[in-house]
């Protein structure tokens, strides 16, 4: 059996090693680190290749590729979204990602991204809320208590200092699960039996439901002045959570308009409906929250640059650790022109 050369090896972070890494670093520190990397990349937004994700839709879900590059590194994520999976004992969302060196085209990292996507989505929500939420916000309503909910709550705690989370889901078991997982987090956790009860007294409203349909999780009359809404459940055509009337009364902030107009809450609105790109708020080119009575809305669908940031963060964080192993992934013949010969010589070394 031939021994692969160093050039053939790519660092691979498995699910087990990702969990080990998260527990070693700590979820709050992971969220703070990811937020810092995402902010850094949003500030240099104009350097990146940008395209709406390549999506393959079916009646039961969607499979997507999310690529981007800053000219030095290239990254992509494979991700699915299948709401029906939960009833079959499967995850709604699974993902993996790759980071490569643009100069050689060689991969430099392969990693699971099911857990990492949950972390980066929460970090992006918290980054947006830091820019847009009312000053001194202490309470968040978490509508939809599935796989993303705990990460969202802990990100708002780590980045904004949220003290209280009010939980609601149409499935009481999901709410009980979320509350149990957040026990010991330092958050004051309040379980609610209606979305109205969850929203009462909250300055930040986060919606994260999974049904692939035009839904109204929040109706227009439920949302008053002076709040910030993180709408993160709508992420494909035909899938929304908010009444159009809420959008009409809000200042809406998005990642990449050509993608959000197809997949986000604003797919309900006219094509010229005014939005602000979030990166422009970070750079100071556009204003975020401007008044106490303003309703701000982050219409988040997830964008490839956020995954690129997460891949960079993992690449840097695993250096000098044992939270990965080298995967024999790239062919490395002695003569780059003799791939066929490499295969033939391998037959000789494995023959009996």
UniProtKB/TrEMBL annotation:
Q: What InterPro entries would the database entry show?
A: NAD(P)-bd_dom_sf (IPR036291), ODC_Mu_crystall (IPR003462), ODC_N (IPR023401)
UniProt feature coiled coil, ranges: none
Q: What is this protein called?
A: Ornithine cyclodeaminase
């Amino acid at each position: 059996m031939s021994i692969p050369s160093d050039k053939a090896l790519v660092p691979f972070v498995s699910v087990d090693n990702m969990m080990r890494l998260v527990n070693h670093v700590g979820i709050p520190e992971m969220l703070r680190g990811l937020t810092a990397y995402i902010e850094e990349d949003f500030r240099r937004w104009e350097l990146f290749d940008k395209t709406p994700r390549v999506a393959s839709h079916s009646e039961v879900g969607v499979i997507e590729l999310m690529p981007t590059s800053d000219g030095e590194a290239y990254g992509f994520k494979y991700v699915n979204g299948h709401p029906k999976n939960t009833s079959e004992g499967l995850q709604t969302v699974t993902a993996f990602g790759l980071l490569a060196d643009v100069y050689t085209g060689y991969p430099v990292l392969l990693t699971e991204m099911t857990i990492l996507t949950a972390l980066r989505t929460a970090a992006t929500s918290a980054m947006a809320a830091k820019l847009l939420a009312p000053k001194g916000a202490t309470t968040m309503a978490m509508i939809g208590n599935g796989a993303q909910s705990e990460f969202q709550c802990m990100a708002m705690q780590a980045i904004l200092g949220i003290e209280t989370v009010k939980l609601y889901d149409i499935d009481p078991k999901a709410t009980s699960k979320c509350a149990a997982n957040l026990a010991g987090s330092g958050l004051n956790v309040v379980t609610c039996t209606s979305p109205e009860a969850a929203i009462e007294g909250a300055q930040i409203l986060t919606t994260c439901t999974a049904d692939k349909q035009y839904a109204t999780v929040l109706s227009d009359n439920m949302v008053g002045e002076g709040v910030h809404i993180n709408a993160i459940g709508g992420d494909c055509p035909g899938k929304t959570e908010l009444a159009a009337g809420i959008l009409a009364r809000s200042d809406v902030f998005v990642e990449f308009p050509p993608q959000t107009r197809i997949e986000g809450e604003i797919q309900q609105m006219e094509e010229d409906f005014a939005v602000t790109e979030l990166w422009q708020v970070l750079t100071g080119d556009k204003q975020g929250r401007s008044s106490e009575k303003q309703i701000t809305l982050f219409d988040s669908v997830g964008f490839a640059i956020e995954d690129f940031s997460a891949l960079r963060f993992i690449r840097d964080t695993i250096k000098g650790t044992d939270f990965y192993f080298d995967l024999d992934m790239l062919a490395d013949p002695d003569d780059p022109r003799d791939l066929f010969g490499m295969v033939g010589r391998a037959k000789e070394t494995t023959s009996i």
